[in-house]
């Protein structure tokens, strides 16, 4: 009886893993094929039957991307824009979240709702008026034009996530510090921020990803080739007729390696950030 | 105004009343200028025959832009395609995401590895995966070869409306499954083990346990995933732009690619704004439905 049950359990586990392995293979194959193609020369990218292992394998695509396509510059542009936007957006959001979490003031509820409105409005809906606004401020074709709107675009979600975290920090800690004579700014910097590392990590990762990958806005306001960010550059490697697929994927892989590294290192925070909105509501 | 509100007790009362506003001001000013003002501006522009060169000479035309959208066959095609994308992508993401979450629910050493693999597409840039799928669905590409290695009559996936919509939807599903899986997994792991055990003791089989214990427990997560995916469906943009460009002959245009080509191709900002407002209304209605679902849920559980 008990041994047949063990067998049945074992069989169930085998079936379970068989499903999971097939699913994992489906998810990963496109990536593996992309890596493979990035080592093929143009003559082999669309052969029949397809080449899974590049033969001959070549590093030419990577060399060309780095040396002749100004890719280092685009990488640096993306890094500068994403790091600056992320830092500013998380900082401003944390300040707003602190006000919403710890103070009573007139119009608080209404203002919080207005901020949450940003979660519901599709970003693309704003692209026309934001373009006119950026033009009016002379921000077209500039890092500033990217950064200002990236910071603003991420305020809603970050404020929402950080506020719920701040609220969960016991008020008694604030009061204890207050007794010691610490003002609100000291409490914010010395108490709330250090205790909120997981929430700050979550918002930092999400904002960095969003700004690193952003395409539509950058494609709309950046004309100067020197100011291109990675998504724009990668898109432009794809020529009108004969796409240099090896080049496109070598560039793509260079662009997504930082993202995957960040994801692998901080995946715990990813899950927290994802589920904060969904489960706790 | 804030001053009068402050508690009269402490000497620095007025300064205290000012404190929250100092924390709010930088973010809030930016938010009002860069997000809220553009929302209002879009609504206003949609009522004008907008002159790109000189805004001052734009002509007020009331709801003409909306009437035009109503009579615009390409707008309807775009709306239908966005709807089709939603119908093609939402159910698979929910069913497969939930299925994977159920398979992954039991803690095992391999679990984190699977989790990472399924989630990889979610964190990868839309531009990169759109180009990747364009390559996979090329005439001489991997998908055609997998379907028929002889390549006797390969399908031209990206040059006909419905084949292209299927390719674009395949990308959407592949990229999104990991996200819904992660939400469902967290919800499933939040179910107290005692509940499952009690049901097992009562003689409930696997399916009954799922129906009676798991499903009600993850219902709020289900509602959340459903609404986010439906709204996300209307936000499909980069994959269409990069895989088909809305072609051939605008047959695969979705609402956002059409909006973009009207605005930055034809420079018709007024009409583009009207499309943006219509899209926002659709999304708003969906968000309101979400709020209602949550509310009834709370009432049920209390």
From TrEMBL, chain A:
Residues 75-266 form the ABC transmembrane type-1 domain. Pfam families: BPD_transp_1. SUPFAM superfamilies: MetI-like. Coiled coil: none annotated. Gene3D superfamilies: MetI-like. It is found in: Cell membrane. Keywords: Cell membrane, Membrane, Transmembrane, Transmembrane helix, Transport. The chain crosses the membrane at residues 12-35, 74-98, 110-132, 144-167, 188-210, 245-266. InterPro entries: MetI-like (IPR000515), MetI-like_sf (IPR035906). It is a multi-pass membrane protein. Its main location: membrane. One of its GO terms (cellular component) is plasma membrane. GO terms for biological process: transmembrane transport. PROSITE patterns: ABC_TM1 (PS50928). It comes from the Bacteria. Belongs to the binding-protein-dependent transport system permease family. PANTHER family: ABC TRANSPORTER PERMEASE PROTEIN MG189-RELATED-RELATED, SN-GLYCEROL-3-PHOSPHATE TRANSPORT SYSTEM PERMEASE PROTEIN UGPE. This is Carbohydrate ABC transporter membrane protein 2 (CUT1 family). It comes from Propionicimonas paludicola. The lineage of its organism: Bacteria, Bacillati, Actinomycetota, Actinomycetes, Propionibacteriales.
UniProtKB/TrEMBL annotation, chain B:
Residues 79-290 form the ABC transmembrane type-1 domain. The keyword Transmembrane helix applies. Keywords: Cell membrane, Membrane, Transmembrane, Transmembrane helix, Transport. SUPFAM superfamilies: MetI-like. The chain crosses the membrane at residues 21-40, 83-104, 116-137, 217-238, 269-289. It is found in: Cell membrane. GO terms for biological process: transmembrane transport. InterPro entries: ABC_transporter_permease (IPR051393), MetI-like (IPR000515), MetI-like_sf (IPR035906). Belongs to the binding-protein-dependent transport system permease family. This is Carbohydrate ABC transporter membrane protein 1 (CUT1 family).
């Amino acid at each position: 009886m008990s041994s047949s049950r063990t067998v049945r359990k074992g069989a169930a586990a085998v079936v379970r893993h068989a499903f999971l392995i097939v699913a994992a293979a489906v998810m990963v194959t496109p990536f593996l094929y992309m890596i493979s193609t990035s080592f093929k020369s143009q003559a082999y990218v669309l052969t029949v039957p397809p080449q899974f292992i590049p033969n001959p394998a070549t590093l030419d695509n990577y060399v060309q991307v780095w040396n002749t396509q100004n890719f280092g510059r685009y990488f640096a542009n993306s890094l500068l824009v994403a790091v600056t936007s992320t830092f500013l957006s998380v900082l401003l959001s944390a300040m707003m979240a602190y006000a919403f979490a710890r103070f009573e003031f007139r119009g608080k509820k209404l203002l919080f709702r207005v901020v949450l409105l940003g979660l519901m409005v599709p970003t693309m809906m704003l692209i026309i008026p934001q373009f006119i606004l950026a033009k009016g401020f002379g921000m077209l074709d500039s890092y500033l034009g990217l950064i200002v709107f990236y910071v603003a675009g991420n305020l809603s979600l970050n404020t929402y996530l950080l506020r719920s975290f701040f609220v969960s920090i016991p008020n008694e800690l604030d009061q204890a510090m207050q007794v010691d004579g610490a003002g609100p700014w000291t409490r914010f910097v010395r108490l709330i921020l250090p205790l909120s590392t997981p929430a700050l990590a979550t918002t930092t990762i999400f904002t960095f990803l969003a700004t690193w990958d952003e395409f539509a806005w950058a494609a709309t306001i950046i004309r100067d080739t020197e100011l291109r960010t990675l998504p724009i550059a990668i898109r432009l490697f794809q020529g009108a007729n004969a796409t240099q697929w090896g080049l496109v994927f070598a560039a793509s892989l260079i662009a997504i390696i930082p993202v995957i590294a960040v994801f692998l290192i901080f995946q715990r925070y990813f899950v927290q950030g994802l589920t904060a909105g969904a489960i706790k509501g | 105004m804030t001053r009068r509100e402050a508690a009269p007790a402490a000497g620095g009362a007025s300064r205290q009343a000012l404190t929250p506003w100092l924390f709010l001001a930088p973010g809030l000013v930016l938010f009002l200028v860069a997000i809220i003002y553009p929302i209002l501006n879009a609504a206003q522009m949609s009522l004008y025959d907008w002159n790109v060169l000189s805004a001052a000479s734009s002509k007020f035309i009331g709801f003409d832009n909306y009437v035009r959208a109503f009579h615009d066959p390409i707008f309807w095609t775009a709306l239908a395609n966005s709807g089709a994308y939603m119908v093609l992508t939402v159910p698979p993401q929910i069913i497969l995401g939930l299925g994977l979450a159920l398979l992954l629910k039991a803690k095992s050493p391999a679990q984190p590895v699977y989790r990472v693999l399924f989630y990889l597409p979610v964190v990868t840039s839309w531009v990169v995966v759109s180009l990747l799928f364009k390559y996979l669905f090329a005439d001489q590409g991997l998908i055609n070869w997998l379907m028929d290695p002889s390549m006797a009559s390969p399908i031209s996936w990206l040059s006909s409306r419905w084949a292209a919509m299927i390719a674009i939807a395949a990308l959407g599903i592949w990229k999104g499954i990991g996200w819904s899986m992660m939400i469902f997994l967290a919800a499933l792991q939040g179910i107290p083990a005692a509940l499952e055990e009690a049901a097992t003791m009562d003689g409930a089989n696997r399916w009954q346990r799922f129906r009676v214990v798991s499903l009600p427990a993850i219902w709020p997560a289900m509602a959340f995933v459903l609404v986010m995916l439906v709204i996300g469906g209307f936000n499909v943009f980069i994959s269409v732009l990069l895989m088909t460009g809305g072609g051939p002959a605008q047959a695969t245009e979705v609402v956002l690619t059409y909006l973009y080509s009207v605005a930055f191709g034809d420079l018709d900002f007024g009409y583009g704004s009207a499309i943006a407002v219509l899209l926002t209304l659709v999304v708003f209605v969906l968000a309101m439905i979400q709020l209602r679902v949550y509310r009834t849920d709370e009432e049920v559980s209390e």
